[in-house]
């Protein structure tokens, strides 16, 4: 029995018809389940390279079908991550704002139509279901927890006109205890506050990392005006009070401005308020139900600091957090719901790993990809890849590490990671500067051999398995000075324990580092720059390696270094525009307050996302039909050497921002072979 779960939007990658729904339709993914077992899962952003993709997860579905060796017509059931009534309401709202849009008002027919267009087979409507959004969150956690019984708490921003639920799971059944309306959303509560800290949607985790630098006391009473706690675990948030109050009280931070102590204190107060509300809800339901175990899902469940506080509180004997708690995880929940309804529920077993994405393919295919970049890369194959990588890192190198199948969810768990020595505090600043180009306060996570975790981290009770980076835990006092690159300002770290059974290649490289240094830990952060999702393919990893300051790259059994390059090496590459990019000429004010025509490249149809480019580069890019070798493009216009170098440099900067694609031309690939 094959069941396919979907999350995300209904636009194709080059369309923007559903902008009105994009606050809900994001984090697209596809998950394929056979008889209750996950056999393939990937987020669309990993494949279409659009962060938090709000597009129809076409590539994700293609991958899942390929992994199973089936056609769409062989899928027994497809499930979408929201109710049909909610989807129809969104379609009606869109039509009201755009009366001329040619969109059917029947969500099931629309999904059926879109899948038929992409995959050439029309599913019977009876094989397409819409499931409750928060029920999908709940099932995605409980079904993977291994618990026979537990309390379930699903919390996020919004979905199906709600923002969360509390339920009890028992066997294959989930009984709902309470739901939370959209206007009482803890996700929207957090989001509304961070707007005044210069952040927005998808930035919540950044504020979680900022909070330990602040003191909640100065704004505690202020924040108590924003929520009320009442009997029976009930609460109320006053979203309408937040903006007017903060505007009167703090200096609003604009994006890019420095953080003041005031901003840090507000972050701390916000984090404290969230934790206080969550504990209030859970204490009541823990006492009312007698449940000693807890499952968490929904976007707010990615608040690892909150999860850590719950862990240490002793309120529950065991806590399971769904590793893809955000909306991509609803694709998993949707697939499991319909699989259960068809008599194939998920087995009651604790989730151990989520390496469900695309594999690297054969070593030969990887080698051919590397050969095509001969002008930019040098590489060697080794049977001692873990030892050699550990030697690099022990010597101070920061490397990209790509092995096996990619992880499902927002965390790099050792198959698509940037790795480094966890000891020098300077490594944190170095990686932030040379790769991530992000705020310097943000911490990096440690990956530790499971058997050594307690030596370095103060873990509550008998817990020793933390495979998904879902909890912030305490670094032991005696180890904080030693682990400078991964210990946060408050003495904590977002921990991943690594099992030899679940992740043998990653365990090997950490163990090899231990043999050289005595430290069974590596700094682990996601393999991407600030402009892109986590890499998935070999091509993605090469692009990120060449556009960041990483010292080395390990892909499968290959050790890769950068070559010194010439202008000719760069102009030999082929250039193309991603399907989500558009070129514009617009009238704008210049620095001298004059109006003139400027050129922009945008990653959507919004003028807010435009990056200005030179007129020469604009003209060059408009000449591309599909893909073109850069040298051939440059030859179409009269340029001296300095101009060729300037345009190539400008193009490379756009590549760093992932607004253009650069890769070896087909001719170069044939020549290398």
From TrEMBL:
Domain named Carbamoyltransferase: residues: 21-336
Top-rank taxon, per record: Bacteria
One Gene Ontology molecular-function label: catalytic activity
CDD domains xref list: ASKHA_NBD_NovN-like_N
Pfam families for this protein: Carbam_trans_C, Carbam_trans_N
Domain Carbamoyltransferase C-terminal: 390-562
InterPro entries: ATPase_NBD, Carbam_trans_C, Carbam_trans_C_sf, Carbtransf_dom, NodU/CmcH_Carbamoyltrnsfr
Similarity-based family: Belongs to the NodU/CmcH family.
Protein name: Carbamoyltransferase
Source organism per UniProt: Aminobacter anthyllidis
